[in-house]
Q: What sequence folds into this?
């Protein structure tokens, strides 16, 4: 697809990111954090589309609590392109909302849906893969997914099992494969089998489709969503229609709504330096490290301490570690977290117990 004039993007930005407390809060979740450098994850998501999709054709979906901060962070995006969902209805209704927004502008457009909170190192390769995916989505009237080439047997991701490459795939660098099936998060032993097989990719939750294909699949499998898309595309008052109709939609993910039932799904495996940045241990891989494997952002003094993660906001007090290992230490202006590194996934449970002023 050399012509990208009909490409639109949806960036899904409604997550809470509670694993990053105390840095993340209800009004400033993971995607609005600058975890790796001075650029937030949502800025990275928008900027990696540069040269492929102009900003006026990028729609960001968030929620009311995060709308103001998202608009402030993405000040170079038209503010009307940053929309708050009036209720939490999961990814399928969110995608339908975006499809209606795009259909009002170009009913034959091609749409890319991607999360706001992932890290991609090789943006140039990512754009090449998206162009190939858009071409395949149109040529084959199919849903195209991006898979990530796994480099370890991760039991925390869903997997995509790939079949044969399409014989007419026009990209040797990024071949297009049929999808055999989607696999739920496996045990570690099964994940090892997937890695050894070589035909399994991590499911990155990135989808590409033409609007006619998407609406056709909605019509067959989720008729209410197809009706909603049509109502939005014809509406004289988009915001009023969203406010009235969106909360009435069934709460369902795109995986359950379409991926398990769609007529045809294709996959491109992407080697783009991807990370879902799912918690502090993920971020630690990209921070400065001292000789004892202590990953840190901000000043740190350590003595007989190893494999710790320390993250401090600017102007926070100096951190000194003595004789401790495998800790997570995160300090903000009003809170301090000290946790065992191996319990990083349990931070969400801790947040559930916090007073409201710290959320």
A:
């Amino acid at each position: 697809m050399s012509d990208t004039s009909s490409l639109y993007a949806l960036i899904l930005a409604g997550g809470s990111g509670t694993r990053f407390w105390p840095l993340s809060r209800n009004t400033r979740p993971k995607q609005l954090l600058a975890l790796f450098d001075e650029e937030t994850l949502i800025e990275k998501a928008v900027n990696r589309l540069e040269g492929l999709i102009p900003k006026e054709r990028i729609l960001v979906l968030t929620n009311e609590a995060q709308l103001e901060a998202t608009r402030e962070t993405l000040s170079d995006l038209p503010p009307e392109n940053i929309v708050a969902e009036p209720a939490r209805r999961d990814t399928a209704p969110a995608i339908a909302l975006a499809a209606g927004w795009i259909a009002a502008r170009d009913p034959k457009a091609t749409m890319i849906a991607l999360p706001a909170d992932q890290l991609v190192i090789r943006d140039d390769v990512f754009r090449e893969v998206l162009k190939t995916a858009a071409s395949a989505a149109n040529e084959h009237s199919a849903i195209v997914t991006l898979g990530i080439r796994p480099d370890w047997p991760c039991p925390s991701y869903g997997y995509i099992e790939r079949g044969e490459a399409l014989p007419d795939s026009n990209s040797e660098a990024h071949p297009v494969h049929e999808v055999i099936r989607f696999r739920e998060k496996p045990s570690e032993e099964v994940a090892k089998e997937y890695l050894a097989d070589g035909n399994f990719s991590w499911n990155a939750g990135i989808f590409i489709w033409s609007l006619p294909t998407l609406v056709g699949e909605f019509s067959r499998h989720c008729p209410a969503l197809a009706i909603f898309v049509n109502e939005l595309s014809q509406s004289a008052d988009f915001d009023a229609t969203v406010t009235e109709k969106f909360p009435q939609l069934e709460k369902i993910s795109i995986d359950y709504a379409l991926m398990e039932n769609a007529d045809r799904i294709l996959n491109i495996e992407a080697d783009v330096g991807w990370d879902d940045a799912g918690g502090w241990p993920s971020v630690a891989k990209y921070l400065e490290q001292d000789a004892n494997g202590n990953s840190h952002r901000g000043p740190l003094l350590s003595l007989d301490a190893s494999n710790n993660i320390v993250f401090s906001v600017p102007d926070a007090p100096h951190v000194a570690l003595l004789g401790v290992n495998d800790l997570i230490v995160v300090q903000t202006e009003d809170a301090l977290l000290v946790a065992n590194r191996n319990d990083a996934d349990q931070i969400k449970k801790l947040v559930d117990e916090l007073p409201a002023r710290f959320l």
Notes: The mean pLDDT is 93. The chain has two domains: 7-275, 280-358. Residues 89 and 251 are 4 Å apart (CA to CA).
